[in-house]
Every structure is written in structure tokens, then in C-alpha cells.
User: Fold this.
Amino acid sequence: MSKFDYNELIDNETMLQSRSIFWDPDIYQDELKQIFNRCWLFLGHDSQIPEAGDFLRTYMGEDDVIVVRGEDNEVRAFLNACSHRGNKVCQAEWGKTKAFTCSYHGWAFDNMGELAAVPLEEEVYDNFDRSKLGLVPVARVQNYKGMIFGTFAEEGPDLVEYLGDMTYYLDVILDASPEGMELIGTPFRVEIPGNWKLPVENAIGDGYHVAWAHAGAMRVVGTIGQGRAETVLGIGKDNTGYDDSGQMHVAIPPHTVLSTLDGQSGYALYDNPEPCIEHLEKFRPSAIERLGEVRGKQLLGSEMHMGVFPNLQIIQGLNLLRVIHPKGPGSFEVATYSMADKNTPAHVKEIIVKHVGQTFGSAGILEGDDGDFTEAITHSPNGYATRQMKGWLGMAAGRTMDWEGPGDASPGIVNELCQREFYAQWQRTMLAETTSEILPEKIEQKEAANG
Ligand code: FES
Ligand SMILES: [Fe+2]
Assistant:
């Protein structure tokens, strides 16, 4: 039983939230248990480990995890901790191997997690049962169209049930072509001294900060700087004037989507968007056949930010996928991957990877701006008086719009619906006694708009 009243820390009526959720170490410990030990978490993509023996390392909460395609071609995930004394059995970030050999005393585990060899086994052990000393597996690992997720929860919703109607939006990226999406190269990684929830809410919903917080960056990257457009994403040059038509926030509990609906503005921040748009338009007719008119024309190519609770963001326009790994209440690691449909020509992929590096790579100019705010918001409550303040997420509350796809939509990307939904789900998960209670009650189903 937690000592906190999570109904009080997040007030869904007044939309006020306690600042303690960003710094309190005991709340953070509750998060590791209630959220990261139970939710489905993104582990990687098939394109990263295509062959038997391929592996990568990632985190589930603060647990170091190895994701590996075994000799039998099955993808499994294991805690990166030796069953002897707990040393890491894998130091590399990715690679290919038949065995993970512990650097402390040399126990070796095969790529299906079994303990395969123990130095001096016969000389020093009696009645030794290797079969009981394999790597500790992540309870369930499942795949949705190439995306590998894992959960430590033995019971509760399957992955597809957990993703729910979010698959309607995910498929714009994952199912636009028969080949599907791929992650290109290795991720950019950077550790930032802020609470993990802040970069999540920023990426999934905060269209408000873009033209203001990134005003300097915009002068050197993208079309604002080059004067090619009077407005970008509906916001006027110099942050004056705003047109919210053809844009939305959508809550698909427990997940969220922010999107423009013009099918092209995803490339608004590119220095060199023409080759990307040329490829997109060539590709679009076949994508419309697969996805239907609404998704093929309005969503494909738009600036679309998908938030899969708790810590995965897929950003179509910027062609990146990122995962936020918590590192204590006041620090997180962001892993940012470049992504593209597999059918994307090499010269377009090159532009994409360069753009991701410039904007949200380790030294990316947009990542740098956002890191500063995240740090300040996390650490200002070190002061006792500041700690008594509350944060407010009341923007566009009650505004609704018609939208054919699943979820409840509200107009504009300058909106706080996605952030409110993220914290409502955070609260639900912190309060849920069983894993089955993590998902919200099913809201009324709309007919999926494929036509
Ligand atoms: S800790 Fe791994 S072999 Fe001893
Ligand atoms: Fe930002």
C-alpha cells in the first residue's frame, strides 16, 4: 500500500498537479513497481535483430535487459544479471553472439538464456543443476508488426489489447507498405538531469512551446529560418497568430496522438524536404490502398506524435522513435532512433538520419533546448517553498472536434489534451491494484474510419 494519495496528487477536475510527482524519491519507487514493472514497454524492433544470435540491450524501468533472437529464431528478453553473483553478463550495446559469458567468474549463457558452461563445475560443485540457473526471463515478450514489447507482468492484457485502438494510428507508420518500418543505425543516447515524465509529456503533446522555446533553433533549422513559410504548423512567424484548423490532439486511453492533417507538414522543419516529399508522394497511392483515404491522405506524412504509455514516442514528421528510461527521480536517458519505411530510397534515408542527428541527436539543437526546461522544472522544487506550487494543464479543456478515427479529438496541436490523458493514465496505473486494472474502462467504440 502506497503512502501517497494519487487521487490528490493529480486532480482531474481542476487539472492541477502536485510538483512532488517530479522529485519525490518514494513516488519514484512506486512508479518503478506500479508502472515499469507492469506495463508493456518497448524493447526494440525486428530490424535491429534480424538473425539468430543478434541482440541489443535496453532498459525496462531501471532494469538492464538483453533482447536476443535465439538459435531457434525466437525473440526473448532477459535481465542482464548473472545468476551466480549478479554481475552483468553483457557489456555491449548490441551485437551477435552464441553465448553471454560473465566477466566475473566465466559462467556462460546461450542465446536462449540457458546456463551452458560453468568453469570448474565438476571440481567445485556437487549436485549442480544448471537448468535452474538460466538467465531470468522477462515474463512476456510480444511483437506488433515488428515492434517488440515486453512486460514483467505474468498476467494482464496482451500487447494487442494494451495497444487497443492505438494500432489505427501506429499502422500509419508500421503498415503503410508491405515491407513495413525499420529503425536505421544505432540510437543517439543522452542522459539529462530531469524527471522522466517531462520529456514524455513534451514530446507527445506540447505544441505550445515549439515556436517560443525553439525560436533560436528555428533560425538555423527548418523552413522558418529559410523564410519559405509564413506559418509553420499553424503558428505564425515570430510566434504571432495561430490557426488550429486541420490539427488535433486525440486521447485514445491509455495512449495519445498529436497530429496535423495535411499529409505533408511532417517535413516542415527539414532544411531539405523536397526529396523526402517527392518519395512520399510517389509512395502515397499504394499507402492509401492499404490504409484507406483518411489515414493515407491526412495522417501519412503529417507531423504526428504518438505516445504509447508510458515511455515510447513515435514522431512521424521528425522520423524518429524515442524511449525515455528513468534513472532515479531526477534523471533520465533518452534513446532516439531514426526510422523510415523500408522502401525509402538510400538518399532519403541519409537526409532523415542527418536531420534526426541535428534536431534530437545527442547534440541536437532541439533536444538541448528541451533538456534545459526539463531540468529546471525537476529541480526547482528542491526549494521548500517552490515545492508547494502546483502545475496546471487546463489548455483547451472541453474543446472537441469531429474526427473519423478512434479516440476523442480536440482541435489544435497547441492543446494539453494529450498531457492530461498521460497524467490520467499515470494516476490510473499508480492506483491499479492488479495489472488487469491498468487499462481504462473501454469508452464507446467509434467505427474505425478506413474509407
Ligand atoms: S557473477 Fe557471473 S560468473 Fe560469477
Ligand atoms: Fe521541444
The first helix runs from residue 6 to 9. The mean pLDDT is 93. The pocket of FE2/S2 (inorganic) cluster (ligand 1) is lined by residues 82, 84-85, 87, 102, 104-107 (CB under 6 Å).
